[in-house]
Amino acid sequence: IMLLRKIFSRDIDRTINPAVVVNERDKKTIQTEIEEYVFTSDLIDNLYKFLDAVFNKRDGKTAIWINGFYGSGKSHFIKYIHYCLNLETSDEAFKHFINNAKDLAEDFSESTPSNIKQLQKMVQSSNIDDIMFNIDTVAGQREDKEKITIILLNCFNQFRGYNGKNIQVARLIEKHLDKSGKFEEFKTKMNAIGGYNWERDASTIIALKLNSVLNVVSRLDSSIDIESLRKKIINPDDISIGGDLIPELVEYINDKPEDYRLIFLIDEVSQYIGSDTNLLLNLQTIIEEVGAQCANKIWIGTTAQQTLDQVVGNTEITGEDFGKILGRFETRIS
Fold it and tell me: Is 320 exposed, middle or buried (0-12, 13-18, 19+ CB in 10 A)?
């Protein structure tokens, strides 16, 4: 008697995650999420639309709003974007994408296999990085009108190998020592103190052994005013878009080639914003300044359970400001 399990092409006892989580990136999960991504004609068009915008738009509007109902696959969609962009997974992700486009792409759609192959060549010959995170997971509890600015700067610092929780430590200690070629030596010396690991325990070390940290910094660079540094760490300055986030991003991309792209993939942004007008305006200003200052090299893609006009409509924003926010996200995917 033939067993029913034998009529299926895949093992029916395999593990399938009930929900895709952007932070899960083990090898088995990656393989499953590429091989078992179920394309529809709309998803083929939407994935093509996202990648085409990032590499071919030239008007300075570098934000993409991706919305869909709860459980509709938004997190899996941005992870698939990540798989297309990441050189370790790009071949497999594009192969699955192209094979489905052969069967499912609608007549007169731009997302033909040949066009997708052209995009693949562009992606794989370019210098691309992406920073993907669920915003609520990394947000912390601190209330601040520049909260999204702080989140992006922390995630950007972590991407660069710096502290992802303390902006002053990342910028004034780690980045400074990195520029002078002494960051690795600093970490080695810190790891020798009390059995800590700097990359994992930096926040604990700063809190419990700040004097030891400053002593190591002083030995590595005697030109630093240690007391001024101590004050900045204990009483940090306010963080702003124009004074902190944009200068860091611009400095980073200045020596990058023309085809470089850094893409922030931010999951669940509408739930995080809710009806908080300050958070929405913070996001709008970030989008505006990144588009104006970063020469199409930096993109921000967000997922949301609501369309952008619904999110804006939930706040007290009206009139000209309403239209301004909608205009910043020229590329929208449903």
Answer: exposed
pLDDT per position as a tens digit, 255-290: 899 889 999 999 999 889 888 888 989 999 999 999
Contact 220, 185 (CB under 8 A): yes
Residues in the chain, total: 334
Most confident of the ranges 1-15, 64-78, 319-333:
64-78
Give pTM, 2 decimals: 0.91
- Given a cut of 60, whether residue 1 has pLDDT beyond it is no
Query: What tens digit of pLDDT does each residue of 170-222 get?
Result: 999 999 999 999 999 999 999 988 778 999 999 899 999 999 999 999 999 99
User: CA dihedral defined by 169, 172, 177, 183, rounded to 10 degrees?
Assistant: 10
Distance between CA atoms of residues 81 and 92, nearest Å:
12
> Is residue 296 within 8 Å of residue 63, measured between CB atoms?
no
Look at residues 316, 244, 245, 306 and name the one whose alpha carbon lies nearest to residue 280. 316
> Which of 129, 203, 128 lies closest to 164 in space, CA to CA?
203
Q: Are 329 and 308 in contact (CB under 8 A)?
A: yes
Rounded Cα distance, 169 and 201, in Å: 13
**CA–CA gap between residue 202 and residue 186 (Å, rounded):** 12
Structure tokens at 245: 């986030």
Q: How far apart are CA 288 and CA 309, in angstroms?
A: 17
The residue among 251, 80, 264, 257 whose CA lies nearest residue 156 is: 264
Task: Using pLDDT thresholds of 50, 70 and 90, give the confidence band for residue 115.
Answer: very high
